[in-house]
Design a protein that fits this description.
Elements (H helix, E strand, L loop, with lengths): L7 E5 L4 H6 L3 H7 L3 E4 L4 H11 L3 E3 L7 H5 L1 H15 L4 E5 L6 H6 L4 E5 L11 H7 L4 E8 L9 E8 L6 H5 L2 H11 L7 H9 L5 E4 L5
Parallel strand pairs: 1-2, 1-4, 2-3, 4-5
Antiparallel strand pairs: 5-6, 6-7, 7-8
Amino acid sequence: MNKKIKTFAIYCSEGASRTLKFYSFNENLIKFGPVRVIYDGDRIDIIQQLTKIFSDKLIILYKSNLTSEERNKIHTKTSMFIHNILKKDNIEFLLCFGNKILKKELIDDYRNRLINFHPAILPSFKGLNAIDQALQNNVAILGNTAHYIDEGVDSGKIIIQTAMLREDFENYEDVLELQFPMMKMIFRDLLNYEISHVEIVKELGKRKKLFLIPNHCNI
């Protein structure tokens, strides 16, 4: 008997590059479309691109509509904004590509259902500009971590990691695109989508520089 597919939303910020690139493939949009996409950036070009792909599924937190007090507490405001959307639309999971720190009330209500994608091999290089931190430290390996969000910064339980050799690095997208196979494994293993082993292997094979550090998910 097939398990019920879990509903999810996506939260993204700034250039929303991973969200835009993953869903630029229409097959991904059809098979793994989110209930909502929440964007808290202010770039008109990105809003236009997100609107073109997601239409009325897109919800934007406009900073221009916030009071000065709300802007001073932007992490709390963003967390509350996301929390209200998840509850209103009965959304079960959140995939996070945004840059705000989510707060305790949201975390408590969605324990082990908020999944952050961080462009470093945690526990190294937490916080912002993780790829730059890794490059500046002349590491041998670059990569990504998908982890559950807890009250700390990039400190939650690790789900899965991907990595590549520093010597193969050409640009940021080399690293960030390694999150796409991770997304599909999470869709399969945590959100109950039917994804064949062949499709996962094919996704991994598209990225010749990739190697996998499995933890929670199985391939």
